[in-house]
Design goal:
Helix content is 25%, strand content 37%. It contains two helices and nine strands; from the N terminus they run αββββββαβββ. Mean pLDDT is 86; it is low at 11-18.
Length: 108
C-alpha cells in the first residue's frame, strides 16, 4: 500500500506543470547579430524574428551580399545608446531568453 501511495505521489510530481517565472530585462543592449541582443551578459533572442546568421552571405541580383552583417548592423543602430525593455516569452533549446523587446513604444 505504501509503495502504491509513494508511486502515485511521484507520478503526480512528474506530471504536475512546472512553474517557470518569466524574466524581464531592461537597460543598454549590444547587438550580437540580427536577432540577438546581449544585455549585461544576458543573451536575449528577439521573438518572431529570424535574421541571417552573422557571417551568412546572401545574393542580391546575382551579386554577393553580406546580409548577416547588415542585419546585425541595423539592429546595432536601433539599440545604440538606448534603453531596451524585453519581456520574456519563452526560452530556446540553449536556455536563452526569447523575448519581445522595445525601445519606448517601438517594437524591435
Amino acid at each position: 500500500m505504501r509503495q502504491t501511495i509513494f508511486a502515485a505521489s511521484m507520478l503526480g510530481l512528474v506530471l504536475a506543470p512546472c512553474i517557470v517565472r518569466a524574466q524581464d530585462v531592461s537597460g543598454p543592449a549590444h547587438a550580437v547579430d540580427g536577432d540577438t541582443l546581449n544585455m549585461a551578459g544576458i543573451v536575449v533572442r528577439l521573438h518572431g524574428i529570424g535574421a541571417p546568421e552573422l557571417n551568412q552571405g546572401c545574393s542580391r541580383a546575382g551579386a554577393p551580399w553580406t546580409c548577416g552583417r547588415e542585419a546585425a548592423g541595423k539592429l546595432a543602430t536601433l539599440v545604440a545608446g538606448q534603453s531596451v525593455r524585453c519581456e520574456q516569452r519563452d526560452t530556446d533549446d540553449y536556455g536563452r531568453i526569447i523575448a519581445t523587446c522595445k525601445i519606448g513604444q517601438t517594437d524591435l
